[in-house]
Amino acid sequence: MSAGHGNGTETAHHVVVLGAGYAGMAAVVQLAARVKGLDGVRVTLVNARERFTERMRLPLTATAQETAELSIAELLEGTGAQFVRGWVTGVDADARTVRIDDDRVLGYDTLVYALGAAVDTSGVPGAEDHAYTLDGAQEAELLAGRLARLGGGTVVVAGSGLTGVESAAEIAERHPRLKVVLLGRDEPGAAMGPKARAHLRGALDRLGVEVRAGVEVRKVLPGAVELAGGESVAAEAVLWTCGTRTSPLAAAAGLAVDDRGRVVTDGALRSVSHPDVYAVGDAAAVRQGYGVMHGTCQGGMPTGVHAALSIDRVLRGRRPKPFRFGYYHTPVSLGRGDAVVQFTRPDDSPRRIFLTGRAAVRYKETVTASPWPTYGRMKKMPASGAFWPRGGRFTRIRGTK
Predict the structure, then answer these.
(1) 278, 283, 378, 391, 396 from 323: Cα distances, Å
(2) Using an 8 Å Cβ cutoff, are 19 and 130 in contact?
(3) What is the pTM (predicted TM-score) of this model?
(4) Angle between helices 371-380 and 297-315 (to 10 degrees)
(5) Strands 244-246 vs 179-184: parallel, antiparallel or unpaired
């Protein structure tokens, strides 16, 4: 076990986890539970806010629906992990230090980089200044306030991916006086099978959502969006859900990143350039047999758990195992009374089986509610969090076992 680095406890191996999203929380709880009886190991979690953000519930927050107050510090009580509240403003991967709020420096021996991703508003003029996002609870609450003040008019949801679909459905259901227009390059539910996609589209139609696929927003103005081709769509509010971007901190730290700024990892989820850094969740470019994983909670939490397992094995003098993950579902809420769940193959392509209606609502709610109690169980039984579909031949990378 290596000595502590810059933390005043020279005998302790200091593991620092940056970010308390779905993946970061899984990593810190799993690791703290596993090393609790191991002498000379400290675990610290750094996050900007004390409240855990249930990203899957942000469309509810954006429509002023009540969600639970989940305290990160309270969850970590009894685990032995320390919680440090603050913004990560810099990482020095060579010096193995993290700068917090520009005035504190934290040393580490092993780093888990879990700073996630945010909606990318940089590519379209005006999006940064005039559009709302669902990057966190505060941003969602800003949109909720705007919607509550509108007596009528049009809300444009830019982006026809799953976040855009769920948000458009919630807004239309909660604010029937508002016209909701969903704009995107792809048909909503494009990756689903035809029957599941038809149900999704039918639900949007019933809610009065106007869907315009095959369009591209070129500019966001104070009261409208401008489409490619010059057409303008009036909008009293614009919600931007198109694409994601990662924090520039990883690249600035000298870590090897891909073209989207995600940390490139090896099979054990270590940075290929700095093996004392693990990357998980949306911040990591994790390659499987079917390609690079895309950001979802169903894949993010397993990466966090696996990074913890890898670190624990290394601390005990063993080799970490390669990470394997296969997708298994795409659950989408369509307001409070409807949903669709498309079951998938491990490579995320649709199977024939799917759920709709009340059964899908119950399934989706079970999925959305599951992370927090899962963390609670892992505190006492860490092995309970180490089960997920490995994906069989779909995830196997040629040349590895």
Answers:
(1) 12, 16, 19, 11, 10
(2) no
(3) 0.94
(4) 20
(5) unpaired
